[in-house]
Hints:
- A hairpin with a 2-residue loop joins strand 2 (30-34) and strand 3 (37-42).
- The protein starts with a strand and ends in a 25-residue tail after the last strand.
- Helix 1 runs antiparallel to helix 2 (44-57).
- The relative contact order is 0.25.
- By secondary structure, the protein is α+β, with helices and mostly antiparallel strands.
- Strands 2-3-1-4 form a four-stranded antiparallel sheet, covered by helices on one side.
- The protein has a domain at 5-69: 2-Layer Sandwich (Alpha-Beta Plaits), CATH 3.30.70.240.
- 28% of the residues lie in helices and 27% in strands.
Amino acid sequence: xxxxxxxxxxxxxxxxxxxxxxxxxxxxxxxxxxxxxxxxxxxxxxxxxxxxxxxxxxxxxxxxxxxxxxxxxxxxxxxxxxxxxxxxxxxxxx
Length: 94
């Protein structure tokens, strides 16, 4: 099994059509995220593919894309309290 690294993918796209295309592309790899920042686990091949495909979408003069590899040794900090699901046998991703 290929090794996957954890990344944050963030973008700032000025035109609605390119924004929609960038969102669709990143969501194809994302495990979570908010607005224009998404969490992605990528192999080296997937990272290259994402960067290539994003370069085809974006306008270099107007748009920005950041793919930041996070240090796997980093600690996770959370805010708030999680609650147990009402039906723990189900897992919903929406």
